Amino acid sequence: MKQNITNNPKVIRKRPWSEDEDMKVLELIQTFGPQKWTQIAQYLQGRVGKQCRERWHNHLNPSIKRSPWDEDEEWILYLYHKVFRNKWSEIAKHIIGRTDNSIKNHWNSGMKKKQNEFSYKFNQIKLKFQREGLSTLNEYDIQQKRILEAILYNKPLRIEQNQFSENDNLEQPQIQQKKIRIEVLQSEKYTDLELIKEDEQMIQQNYQHHELDYSNRFNSHFLLQLFGFESKVLGFQESS
């Protein structure tokens, strides 16, 4: 009977991260990229992949904002919360530099005193929108306008393509090389399509030229036959 054998199971350490561990995680991310967390955790005694991933996304990622929330950010958070409610990970996709954990903590603490103020501001916008229509939103920037339209028209809010790239500023050499390969393949595909298109145009032109040449030959032959027939008729008339 086959037995399950576990060799030296890894003991998970629930303790604060040290500076040396943080530096080690950063070095390993430069090697493996911010994806292979299980592989990264193998180099850190007492850590598992989930711990390394959370440490990166919540603390070590250079794109994370650690500055206090300003009023504009809080207003944007209020608007996104009206759409997604307590789906913090969805909100984090739209607010650049803030993690879902920091968004959740700020909403449950710093936003409590300001929700009435933002609610009054939103209701004023809603009343003005009902009176004047969409032109009301022209005074707001693109991000605010998009989310206000989604709320007022009750339509889903989609993520812009460039927001993903802004949320993750760290691009590893492997990722860059992959992007280059994709661009080259797309370029080659585009070139192949262009060549096929040119071949089709040449075939069409040759076909049209052949049709014109055939038409000219047919017309010439027809004229020659007609001229010969007329000559025979005239010769017959003269002989008679």
Comma- or semicolon-separated keywords:
Arc Repressor Mutant, subunit A; DNA-binding transcription factor activity, RNA polymerase II-specific; repeat; SANT/Myb; single chain; disordered N terminus; Myb_dom; 68% helix; flat; 240 residues; mainly alpha
Folded structure, characterized:
Keywords: DNA-binding, Repeat. The protein has helices spanning 19-32, 37-41, 49-60, 71-84, 88-92, 100-108, 115-132, 142-152, 161-167, 173-239. By secondary structure, the protein is mainly α. Among the domains are: 19-60, Homeodomain-like (Arc Repressor Mutant, subunit A), CATH 1.10.10.60; 71-170, no CATH class. Helix 4 (71-84) packs parallel to helix 8 (142-152).
Mean pLDDT: 75
Q: How many strand units? A: 0
SSE succession: HHHHHHHHHH
What is the overall silhouette?
Answer: flat
Strand residue content: under 5%
Tell me the span between the first and last alpha carbons. Answer: 120 Å
Largest sheet: none
Low-confidence stretches: 1-8, 161-192
Gyration radius over CA: 36 Å
Report the helical percentage: 55-70%
Helix-strand makeup class: mainly alpha
Keywords: DNA-binding, Repeat
GO molecular function: DNA-binding transcription factor activity, RNA polymerase II-specific; RNA polymerase II cis-regulatory region sequence-specific DNA binding
InterPro entries: Homeodomain-like_sf, Myb_dom, MYB_TF, SANT/Myb
Domain Myb-like: 13-60, 61-111
In short:
One of its GO terms (biological process) is regulation of DNA-templated transcription. Among the domains are: 19-60, Arc Repressor Mutant, subunit A, CATH 1.10.10; 71-170, no CATH class.
